Amino acid sequence: MTQAIVFSHTGGPEVLGLQSQELTAPGPGQARVRHTAIGVNFIDTYQRSGLYPLPLPSGLGQEAAGVVEALGPGVSGLAVGDRVAYAGGPLGAYSAERLLPAAVLVKIPDGISDESAACMMLQGMTVEYLVQRTYPVRPGQTVLWHAAAGGVGQIAVQWLTALGATVIGTVGSDAKADIVRGLGCQHVINYSREDVVARVSEITGGQGVPVVYDSVGKDTFQISLACLSPRGMLVSFGNASGAVPPFAPLELTSRGSLFFTRPKLADYIASRAELEASAQALFERVADGRIKVAPSHRYPLAEAAQAHRDLEGRKTSGSIILLP
């Protein structure tokens, strides 16, 4: 038996409940993993609320770290006792122990804790594909990153700074501004009392930025477009304030032949080779100190609903983990 968070209908955090579940032996290509730390991400709230529909009832969670307890037939490259982490695969990371395809697991290098691994995989690999493959940022470029104090944002600020980029980060409070400045963010805009478009124009000498990374969605969509230079790219990768509303493609034309993309991590780690390369790029930057990742908030697994309330209520900064 194992304990897992399950929900049978969509709604607020209150729909999440802890249940006991049977756990069978791993089948062909599977591994049984005992979780030591579980990542909480904004996409989890989209799935719980119904913004991203799922067949119900369903588990929740795409990211965790743990220890391999058993392996099914046909699994190679792993051994019982290995420390592993993952981001993706079937939902169900909000659990004490689970079965999942061994192909989604990567070994955690020595020197990286389980807690750090649990909150870096989805967010860190997201940053990797966004800044190195969706729009490959070059040294000397200036980029705008919304929600810079969030889990993804904090990793992004460090990654972009290490690349030699100038980062403009938006935040919602002075306390969060202090956090991202400490991570190397050169320009911080508190959107609660500053005009983001005017400040970006001031910082860039009226030129705008070549790329905006936007996980906020509806509330920042027009702002993001207005901050781009001609032929710039808006990378929309989240809906924290709601989905981006429909818009006419001619709006991109009228603003200077802009590009718009709505990528997701799964399409950038679709093959084993891509997964390993993305994870390796992340691990290397954490191991050599260019990026520091640690959870800012910890909750018991049974308090997953409270973790969601705090995340959606913008009461958190950085990364959140659940502890079984």
Automatic annotation (TrEMBL):
Kindly list the GO molecular function terms attached to this UniProt entry.
mRNA 3'-UTR AU-rich region binding; NADPH binding; quinone reductase (NADPH) activity
Which SUPFAM superfamilies would you find in this protein's record? GroES-like, NAD(P)-binding Rossmann-fold domains
What are the Enoyl reductase (ER) domain coordinates in residue numbering?
Answer: 11-322
Q: Where do the coiled-coil regions begin and end?
A: none
Check the record and name the InterPro entries matching this protein.
ADH-like_C, ADH-like_N, ER, GroES-like_sf, NAD(P)-bd_dom_sf, QOR-like
Q: Which GO terms describe its cellular component?
A: cytosol
Q: Which domain of life is it from?
A: Bacteria
Q: Give the UniProt keywords, A-Z.
A: NADP, Oxidoreductase
Spell out the Pfam families in the cross-references: ADH_N, ADH_zinc_N
| Cross-referenced NCBIfam families | PRK10754.1
Q: What is this protein called?
A: Quinone oxidoreductase
**The species this protein was found in:** Chromobacterium rhizoryzae
